[in-house]
Specification:
binds zinc ion; 2 domains; alpha+beta; 14% strand; 128 residues; single chain; elongated
Length: 128
């Protein structure tokens, strides 16, 4: 039984690794509250959460783009021109960051689809 740097997907508590033997299938992770995960499920859950967090970041950045541009567009006084420029620069930066994260997520999804197709093709070839 060994503490890890991993956190429980359900409650955020520290996960402890329990190993009996050297096979992945007999290793498990539990938190103080008793939530338990196999390595495979823990890995899948982490992948899903990272995807949700990154898509959430894309959504928030795109909201910031729209809101900053709207605010900048509403500034009519010359005295506030500097602030309007700052809002526009922030919108451009947020737009670039959203595009980078979106591109990463889309490439990752395409690679996952290709890997799945390759696995199916390999299984079909073994069955033939
Ligand atoms: Zn937990």
């Amino acid at each position: 039984m060994e503490s890890t740097a991993l956190t429980c997907p359900d409650c955020g508590g520290v996960l402890t690794e329990h190993a009996s033997g050297t096979q992945h299938s007999v290793r498990k992770y539990t938190c103080y509250l008793g939530h338990a995960y196999s390595p495979y499920v823990l890995n899948e859950t982490t992948e899903t959460e990272v995807g949700q967090a990154l898509w959430g970041a894309v959504r928030r950045l795109e909201e910031q783009v729209m809101f900053s541009r709207r605010l900048a567009g509403e500034i009519l006084s010359d005295a506030m021109a500097g602030f309007a420029g700052e809002l526009k620069r922030k919108a451009e930066l947020a737009e670039r960051h959203a595009a980078i994260i979106r591109g990463l997520l889309e490439r990752s999804a395409a690679q996952a689809r290709e890997a799945k197709e390759d696995a199916v093709t390999a299984a079909d070839q073994r069955a033939a």
